[in-house]
Amino acid sequence: xxxxxxxxxxxxxxxxxxxxxxxxxxxxxxxxxxxxxxxxxxxxxxxxxxxxxxxxxxxxxxxxxxxxxxxxxxxxxxxxxxxxxxx
Length: 87
Fold this sequence. Notes:
By secondary structure, the protein is an all-alpha fold. The protein has one domain (2-77). Helices cover 69% and strands 0% of the residues. The protein has 4 helices and no strands. The protein is elongated, with a radius of gyration of 20 Å.
């Protein structure tokens, strides 16, 4: 039963931290001793997820219009393929 309680707490904290602003999360991070081990781990995971999301957004903003359109259409644009060898 303890495993189930720990998983439920992890999910609860994840949802809670996801709703918080960056500033609110930074306030929590300033006093990690006040957080449980699970809360510290979920907080680190949320910071990591937000960094990854921002990196992906930045990368998409720098891609060519052709590549962006292809990504949205779930196809591979020809300009991203390597050289094609003749048969």
